[in-house]
Amino acid sequence: MATASENHQLLSDYYAAYGSGGPEGLARMAAFYAENKPSYTAGNSELSGETNSPEESLKVMRRLQELSGGNITFAAPPTVLVAGDAVVALLVHEKHARIGRPELVVPRLYVYEIADGKISKSFGWQLEAKAFDEYYPRG
Q1: What is the rounded average pLDDT of the residues 53-74?
Q2: Sequence-distant (≥ 6) Cβ neighbours of residue 139 within 8 angstroms
Q3: Across the chain, how many H-helices and E-strands are there?
Q4: CA distance 36 to 52
Q5: Structure confidence at residue 68 (pLDDT)
Q6: What is the mean pLDDT of the chain?
Q7: How many CB atoms are closer than 10 A to CB 4?
Q8: Residue 44 phi/psi, 5° resolution?
């Protein structure tokens, strides 16, 4: 089992891997996923719901990039709220931009379970869920 410091670093490296985004950034992030990593994203947007594998998670992330024209960045580096030997919780302020809409900065809380040096599960909540859901409505 990893230490809290090692898991903190793993998540710092994970977000740094995104770099300037795009397909390359997503591919670098995917290298941090355990083989059967499920995820859950709260809300009622097109991007909400459960995934059951890294491939499904990447499909949702690619869709987010598609909807935003690739215009997703971080307003600041992620803030790690707590890091333990198996879990890391952090807050990210994501900037979203869509053609014909004003920019949206949304705080998102993520909880990651970590096993064997990989992200084994992830859970995400938009702290301004209504704004996020309206920005990315279900089609």
Answers
A1: 89
A2: 46
A3: 4, 7
A4: 7
A5: 87
A6: 93
A7: 15
A8: -125, 25
